[in-house]
Structures are given as C-alpha cells and as structure tokens.
Amino acid sequence: MGEYTDRVRADIVSDNRARRILYLVYGAIAVAAVCLLGGFATIVLVLGLGPVLMLIVVIEIYYRIQDWRRVRAAEEVDADLAKLRPEKKLAEALPVNVIRKLRGRAQQAQDAGEPYLAADLRLAATTIERLDRPA
Length: 135
What we know:
- The protein is 86% helix and 0% strand.
- The chain is mostly helical.
- The mean pLDDT is 83.
C-alpha cells in the first residue's frame, strides 16, 4: 500500500462509521416516536420505512462506487509517485562513498569559511574510515 491509499482507506472507514451512526440515530428516533406517539407514528413509520430503506440502499451503493473510485485514484497516484522517486542505490551507502562525500562537504565548508564544520566533517570521515577497516 502507498501513502495516499492508506489515507484514503482510513478516510473511507471513518465515513462508513459516521454513516452507520446516522442510520442508528434514525432508527432510534423512529423507535422512540413509535413508543411515544403510538398508532399514528406506527402508520407513518410503516409507510415511510420503504422509501427510507430504499434511500439508504441507494446512498450505500453511491458511496461504495465513490469509495472504489477514490481508492483507485489513490493507487494510481501512489504508482506515479513510486515512478518519480529515485531508487536508492546500494552503492550510495557504502562507507567508501560516504567518506568521499564527507570529505567533499568538508572541503566545501572550508572554502565557505566554516573551519569548525569542516573539522567535524573530516573527523566523521576519519571515524568511518577507521570503523570500516578490518580488525
């Protein structure tokens, strides 16, 4: 999974939870109305229940289609980002290359008038060099 796909999936789970809570609130209000108002509320609830349930089904279908589209778009974005990100080369992390980079940065720091930074970079290069030697 990619960064955006994970975010979209988490957002979808949150949206689904919020919708389910709204459905439960509607159900609780309907049950409370039937208990408090008696016969009239029962007739209204029975006559209104069919269209409301149909509306809930349509809303759920619509949101599932939208969620599928969002996940698919996020997967495409993650794939595009993966293509754009440079692959980390294994040779880049070799101690010889790190030492060479540190010495180059030390020279740049020295040229820029930062003798303490240059000394610290040379010390780091020397330390890595000593650690890299076989015992």
